[in-house]
Amino acid sequence: MPSKNVSLLPQYESLRGQLQHALVVDAHAGELLHCLRTLDVHLAGHVPSNVVAATTPHAEIAFAWYPENAALSLYLYCNDVPVPGGKGIFTGGRLFVPIPASMLKPAGTENELVAIMRFLSGGWKYQLWVDVSGQRKLLDQGRDNDPGKPNDDSFIRTVRFGGKQS
Questions:
Q1: Helices (H), strands (E): how many in the chain?
Q2: Which residues pair with 111 in a beta bridge?
Q3: Distance CA 109, CA 163 (A)
Q4: 66 CB contacts (<8 Å, ≥6 apart)?
Q5: pLDDT digits (tens, 9 = 90+) for 9-61
Q6: Which residues, in sequence order, are CB contacts of 26 under 8 Å at separation 6+?
Q7: How far apart are the C-alpha atoms of 85 and 57, rounded to whole Å?
Q8: Domain boundaries, the chain
Q9: Class of domain 29-39+46-161
Q10: pTM for the full predicted model
Q11: Comparing C-alpha atoms, which of 41, 59, 57, 61 is closest to residue 49?
Q12: CA–CA separation, 101 vs 119, rounded Å?
């Protein structure tokens, strides 16, 4: 018996294409990424996904990268503690990693996120977003400056989020 969620597949494919295009042209992809995350929950049985949470967590890190078939090796730490689900090799052009509330500092206090990343092929671009209680913020973005040489495909990014809003 076909599921009515299958009718969401064309919307999913369209949003996926828009996300990849946004990354190519250096446009902010946060809203597209959020829409895809919402669809991922509904389509979990029909499309592959790296991490699908049943409900939106208090804080979530979202990666989007191009090309989507590029493998990303990732080690993610929040406040010096490894983030569950934030370690491994991922493909698919996007990854959502919920940060357990127990790892976050009290409201109004700055949190530190360290991402140790390595793209396993050249020509990549990425954006790193944080969603805290529905408020999305671009934390970092980057591109492969020399696709023919692997010297810039491995790097560490330290970013901060939360704290007092100015």
A1: 2, 8
A2: 161
A3: 4
A4: 20, 23, 24, 93, 124, 125, 126
A5: 777 788 888 888 888 888 888 888 888 877 766 555 545 545 444 444 478 89
A6: 125, 141, 143
A7: 14
A8: 29-39+46-161
A9: mainly beta
A10: 0.73
A11: 41
A12: 29
Q: Which two tokens stand for residue 122?
A: 């050249």
Q: Closest Cα partner for 71 from 124, 19, 23?
A: 124
Other residues' Cβ atoms within 10 Å of the Cβ of residue 117: 21
Mean pLDDT of the chain: 82
Question: How buried is residue 69: exposed, middle or buried, by Cβ count under 10 Å (0-12/13-18/19+)?
Answer: exposed
Cβ neighbours around 1 below 10 Å, total = 2
94, two tokens: 């996007």
DSSP state of 106: P
The owner of tokens 């696709």 is 147
